[in-house]
Predict the structure.
Amino acid sequence: MTITLQIEDPNGYFIPNIHPDNFAVYEGGVRQKLVSAEVQHAPVSIVLLLEEDGRYHELNEVLGVEIPQASEALLNVLGHRDRLAVFTYSGQVKMLAGFGENRGDLSDVFEQLGTPEFSEANLYDAILGTLNFMRDVRGRKAIILISSGLDTFSKTTYEQVLQAAEQDRTPIYIIGLSEMMRGQAFIYGSAAPYAHMNWNEAERRLEHLATASGGRICPDQTLNFPPCMATS
């Protein structure tokens, strides 16, 4: 007899790095020995959405240095059948790579990410556009967003993008930059133009968006690829 199982944690998230020796079968309280397990990883289609704001010099430095590192880290943990598309957003959304790009080309894309120029940060427009892009994608899929949570000039409201996230159910996994920006504000003091931003509110909104979509927010201040976004 063969049984196919989907392995999730109590919150409904996929558990990475499952191996055959992690399984045990009991019958009548007795562990069965003549049992074998085979682990199959369903491929996943991921959109990586990267902030390309340019309003604050210190934020630009964070974006220009940390985001390429985080993007390359994501590329290193994807399976060979997984697909990755890359978008950036500022005043508008730009596609840097579609699902058909090979891994070498994606690495080149990440290496070319530089310090952003002055621009808007239309986060809500970008999320809504990305959700629309993913609507017809079949199978396992997710959006990974690296963002400060700031929105400067979107036509889409927060309430509209929250509703879309709830309806579409494409999981959004978010690495927020607010903790990094708080650290920068501490260094530069109250004179920094972003020092009086409501970072708590920006972080709260990101968390609600992630939860509404079935994803989660990853509080990793170093932007290393966090376990909560593992795709296996």
Notes: Residues 221-227 have pLDDT under 50 and may be disordered. The CA atoms of residues 16 and 227 lie 8 Å apart. The radius of gyration is 20 Å. The longest helix spans residues 57-77.
